[in-house]
Write a structure and sequence with these properties.
alpha/beta; binds adenosine monophosphate; binds zinc ion; seven-stranded mixed beta sheet; binds fe (iii) ion; 10 helices; single chain
């Protein structure tokens, strides 16, 4: 079995539609795919429809943006109820705040003479999708300012850039509680992805575990061998499962589907904890 539990589509900042991500997953030889767009369930229906025509299983998920003391934390939520009022209200609030934040970042860049407009950025966002910095990056590519998303992040968009503006996101403990309340299974994403900002401190993961965190995404391209060792031990000491995944974003990132995978016994454990929604079977 080849199980990849973290991917993005045009419902957020991936570059391929949900049905195309499913098709790529088939081509990559996956047996199970989770679609985990940022702060939205919008891609689920299209992905489910596409999955039924294939031999693979679909785990509906969300990558929930959280923040604690200025550090951005990502929480994967598997199989939550997509109609849970409190969770959906929080995600809607984060998406709205992302719109305002995008405008603010563009304003700061325009004031510095960078060739970009709000309309140009909006044109990169699929209707109804969760907007993010990668869409600003795409507008910079379209305008010929940079060659690719990586260069855009390096020069203009990384967390310590002068143009960086944050957006509303819940505290990670509250997010774990919300996901659990929605019948979902919370797994912290890439906690030691240093290149993308400050790492998540162990004490925060301990607090999240006490609130119902189920697992840690340990095997991820942004974790070096030290991070993998450290997080494997931390998961064992807290009784959390260990997952691995690609964090695929289409051609927006080098990450390849199935480059890291999750064990079938871990997926079974996740499924048995979930009461919010069901895996889509082929
Ligand atoms: P945001 O959610 O708007 O704060 O933007 C964060 C998103 O940008 C994450 O989903 C990352 O996958 C993506 N990202 C971060 N760094 C890079 C990079 N160097 N190249 C492409 N995408 C990136
Ligand atoms: Zn992303
Ligand atoms: Fe992430
Ligand atoms: Fe991600």
């Amino acid at each position: 079995m080849v199980i990849d539990l973290h991917t993005h589509s045009t419902a957020s900042d991936g570059t391929e539609a949900p049905s195309v991500v499913v098709q790529r997953a088939v081509e990559a030889g996956l047996t199970t795919l989770a679609l985990t767009d940022h702060d939205t369930t919008r891609g689920w229906a299209e992905a489910a429809e596409a999955t039924r025509a294939t031999g693979i299983r679909l785990v509906p998920g969300i990558e929930v943006s959280c923040t604690r003391d200025g550090t951005s934390i990502h929480l994967l939520a598997y199989l939550p109820d997509p109609d849970h009022p409190a969770l959906m209200a929080d995600l809607a609030r984060a998406r709205e705040s992302r719109e305002t934040r995008l405008d603010r970042m563009v304003e700061l860049m325009v004031a510095d003479g960078i060739d970009i407009t709000v309309a140009g950025v909006r044109a990169e966002v699929t209707d109804g999708a969760t907007p993010g910095r990668p869409h600003i990056a795409d507008a910079l590519v379209t305008a010929g300012v940079v060659a690719d998303r990586d260069e855009a992040f390096e020069r203009f968009l990384k967390n310590d850039s002068r143009y960086y503006v944050g957006h509303y996101a819940p505290d990670p403990v509250r997010a774990v509680e919300l996901v659990r309340d929605a019948g979902g299974v919370p797994v912290i994403a890439h906690p030691r992805a240093g290149p993308r900002g400050r790492v998540v401190e162990d004490v925060v993961i301990e607090e999240m575990a006490a609130a119902g965190l189920a697992g840690i995404e340990v095997n991820h391209r942004d974790h070096d061998a030290d991070a993998v060792r450290h997080l494997t031990a931390l998961a064992a000491s807290l009784g959390l499962v260990v997952t691995g995944s690609s964090d695929y974003h289409g051609h927006g990132k080098v990450n390849r589907l199935g480059e890291n995978t999750t064990g079938p016994e871990v997926l079974s454990a996740i499924e048995s904890l979930a009461t919010g929604s069901a895996v889509v079977e082929p």
